[in-house]
């Protein structure tokens, strides 16, 4: 039985071109970029070329991009680094109720150190209210952090507008673009972004590497102290092979660009339209261009999402009940609850996310098994 992977919002298959580019930096070009001999210079050059390519892709300056070990680390770096640089003169952070767990848990940690955090509400599609944001910003606000493309429901926020509001009010704007990077055109200068988090493993690059864009004028305290790598902002010997893989993943996406995005969008819309033919289902999040091209999040009335996922897993169809970082939790998704779903409906949801490798044949097979699974579970459900 063929495996069908529909959990690309959690991680993606590494592109063979990316893997091929990485291997020499594990076998022959294994030097430490901080070393001054040829092997070190060889590795250093690869890191700097990667930095330049990735920075250019988001409209950033070459020296404004710092490599990290993950998107989670980059989000921690952004929020903690800004707090440590500004406290106690400023102590206020604004974020939303639908952020990735690493942002929400970082904010909870900083609250213990004296931070005041405002958690913005969202509407039924997952959008923040700009007026609520404007009213929340004070002269004590350090940063506003709003995820661009939500990892669970795919809703794409208007970050240009959000950034403009932040700048008018004299505060910094940070956004997590891990899910939207290369799926939505991003220019940090034109979109009023001061800090942005991105990573490689959502775009067919390796796990274990991310980056934080920090506008040159922004003062930020490093999380890691040591040898002063990453222009003094992130000490640790660089993960050269993964950084090279990150860059190659960006190159691979850029080579096909709109072709892959258009195909994913058509397949996503087909998937959603067919799922809607099942009785008593509803789509979570926004629609059309305001939704990530690879995201499908569906609630099936009166059936546990975990049960659906378990059945699909037995057919080697791999889905998720939410963010992979918290999917082992039995609690309802904080994102779906923030949309206004009751716990029963939130727990009846599954997330499916496609990639450039997903085919219509795979989606049709998944649809067949989803329909039969839902029918079977509803027959035995005590609340159906």
Oligomeric status of the shown chains?
single chain
What is the approximate shape? Answer: globular
Tell me the β content.
5-15%
Can you identify the CATH superfamily of the largest domain?
A: Type I PLP-dependent aspartate aminotransferase-like (Major domain)
CATH topology of the largest domain: Aspartate Aminotransferase, domain 2
- What is the CATH class of the largest domain? Alpha Beta
Distance between the termini: 31 Å
CATH architecture of the largest domain: 3-Layer(aba) Sandwich
**Number of DSSP strands?**
12
Task: Please give the count of helices.
Answer: 13
Largest sheet: 7 strands, mixed
Strand order of the largest sheet: 2-8-7-6-5-3-4
Overall pLDDT level? 96
Count up the domains.
2
